[in-house]
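S.,

Sequence below, as promised.
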Amino acid sequence: MTSNAARALAHPSRDEIRLEGVLHALSDPIRLRIVRQLAGAADELACSRFELPVTKSTSTHHFRVLRESGVIRQIYRGTAKLSGLRTEDLDALFPGLLDSVLGAADRQAKRLGED
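The prediction came back faster than expected:
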């Protein structure tokens, strides 16, 4: 087994992504914050790029929930674990869902002065 294969992370296939799992993943404020930041990025982001108000182990949990629900894809590049939104998969399965959630989250952040 190569080192890259040993470091591969499990992701659901497009057909395995379930609406209830995606909605659960997006319902947490920390995970929604991660998704918003990924949506605004031009490329994948390393986990270390996120400034989250939780411990490293809790951050790891949030990224795992997002990955296992099919919201994000994570890959190792060298020693960095990079995350990116699975926009194409989510848009194919649930057209408009991600855009609606992100738009609502942006409006809420502005309303609450968090932006």
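The radius of gyration is 14 Å.

Coffee later?
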